[in-house]
């Protein structure tokens, strides 16, 4: 079995040789910035909040108990103040060098853009903005954070919802297509900080038929067998060694 140093060296070489890297990531990319993930050791799914964890991120809760939905969003999901970590910054560096073509993320925290990355495909939306569910008017997230109870549109009194994709909602097909195109053309796919369990986002990874497929994650994932280089460690830590 290869040592960690040997794997990092193999990764370094692969990155040097690549010209069209695509990164596919998840909540684990931001844990080193201080944001909890869902399914990791310290993840939100390990906490007891009353309802089953997925309910708090569902369109169902927003529809049937909006008070509870917004209470949870304000306390646990929105309005954090964190900074990009070494993983976000390294990806930005590769993009500036012309090596990395796209970041496809399941994250909703906007940290890739905060690090300066440009081509970021946010499959599950983001927590920076929100919109009226009735007339679609856009608002800043302060429309939720600086109000109480169920936030309402100034124009039509519809409910204002964060621009995140909740369980039970469909992903934007244009974004899925864009992400698929990038992955099919890539000459290297780096997957990191994701449990690879949430579809249809994860099905995108199957579109990569090239080599090398790199996986950097603390825990095991359902696609470990497919990876040409597998590193079980913190992604910010690994990237800072490159
Ligand atoms: P997940 O299911 O919580 O999995 C995270 C994975 O990352 C786990 O396998 C962890 O072991 C691993 N992990 C945690 N920290 C690190 C680290 N430092 N380095 C490497 N691996 C690490 O999250 P997924 O992204 O797979 O699931 C998709 C959900 C999570 C999306 O719908 C997101 O919106 C949602 N989410 C996003 C954020 C965010 O935007 N920061 C936070 C929490 C959840």
TrEMBL record:
Zn(2+) binds at residues 132, 135, 153, 156. Its EC number is 2.3.1.286. One of its GO terms (molecular function) is histone deacetylase activity, NAD-dependent. Keywords: Metal-binding, NAD, Transferase, Zinc. The active site is at 124 (proton acceptor). PROSITE patterns: SIRTUIN. Residues 1-242 form the Deacetylase sirtuin-type domain. PANTHER family: NAD-DEPENDENT PROTEIN DEACYLASE, NAD-DEPENDENT PROTEIN DEACYLASE SIRTUIN-5, MITOCHONDRIAL-RELATED. This is protein acetyllysine N-acetyltransferase.
């Amino acid at each position: 079995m290869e040592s960690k140093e040997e794997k990092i060296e193999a990764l370094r070489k692969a990155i040097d040789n690549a010209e069209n890297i695509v990164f596919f990531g998840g909540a684990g990319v931001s844990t080193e910035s201080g944001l909890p993930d869902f399914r990791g050791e310290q993840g939100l799914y390990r906490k007891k909040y009353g309802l089953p964890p997925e309910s708090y991120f569902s369109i169902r809760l927003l529809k049937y108990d909006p008070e509870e939905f917004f209470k949870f969003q304000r306390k646990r999901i929105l309005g954090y103040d964190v900074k990009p970590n070494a993983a976000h910054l390294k990806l930005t560096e590769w993009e500036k060098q012309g090596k990395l073509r796209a970041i496809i993320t399941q994250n909703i925290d906007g940290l890739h853009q905060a690090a300066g990355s440009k081509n970021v495909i946010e499959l599950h939306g983001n927590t920076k903005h929100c919109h009226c569910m009735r007339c679609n008017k856009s608002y800043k997230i302060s429309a939720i954070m600086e109000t109480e109870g169920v936030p309402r549109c100034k124009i039509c009194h519809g409910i204002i919802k964060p621009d995140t994709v909740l369980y039970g909602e469909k992903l934007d097909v244009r974004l899925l297509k864009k992400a698929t195109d990038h992955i099919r053309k890539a000459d290297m796919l780096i997957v990191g900080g994701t449990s690879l369990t949430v579809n249809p986002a994860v099905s995108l990874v199957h579109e990569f038929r090239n080599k090398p497929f790199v996986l950097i994650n603390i825990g095991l994932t359902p696609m470990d067998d497919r990876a040409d280089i597998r590193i079980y460690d913190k992604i910010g830590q690994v990237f800072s060694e490159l």
